[in-house]
Amino acid sequence: MTDYQIAMEGMASVLKDPELLIKSFKRGMYPEGFQKFYLSMVPTLDAIERLYLSVGEPQTMLSNMAAAFVDQSKALYDNTPRRTKEVFFINQSLAVAGYVFPAILQYKGESSNALIEQIQTKWKEAFPKSNIKASDFEDIEKGFHRKWCYITTAACQVRGMQDDCEELNLLRHYRDTYMANLEGGRQLILDYYDIAPSIVKHIDMQPDADRIYDQIWKDYIGPCIDLIHAGRMEECLNLYSQMVLEMKEKYFHLYPHVKTSGTNIG
User: Fold this and answer.
1) What is residue 129's DSSP assignment?
2) How far apart are CA 95 and CA 155, in angstroms?
3) Single pTM value for the model
């Protein structure tokens, strides 16, 4: 087979089962799942890189590769039963953001960034309401080990706040001195870490992601900070738990196999 055939066939089949991929998109499972996926994609990326460095019109070649990938993804979506279409699309988009883009970035080829740009363009044409951003493996993996809930950190970043800002430090102190010392508190924190990165990835794919984070701040995080200042620690826990449960219902409902702790969190 020629490099062009290898690349085209590889791109057309790289995301043949997105729902299987996202089953490993959780803390403790993601590194192994990603590495396995990345190694399976290397032969395709090798062929694309060789073509990129040798053909006369590399951007046209990359456009063809992106089209092969997106066309196959669109065909899978179109053939999905109507009742499960929305869930399938969210899984599919998450697989692109959590595996395909990080794998291309991990490859670090001269073609890598240009290939991602072509895929983003073709994906937006096929799915106009989508908003998939590219992140690398390290950034995603760090999200599973944030020192405070990933949702809070994302909301703060949208507001231009630094990781060591007063608000986040206050919440971390609350976590370490109040939440962690409750019965079942440490498990509750770990449960948050399990689901929060996936919730944030789903929010990030929404066209109005910044508005969503701003509303989360106004409805939950800001009031939680006020409650901590007032010494109303249990009310803060109940409100923050309400936020996580609401975000899980909206953006994590497609993971029924993931169960949270039995701890009563309000």
Assistant:
1) T
2) 23
3) 0.63
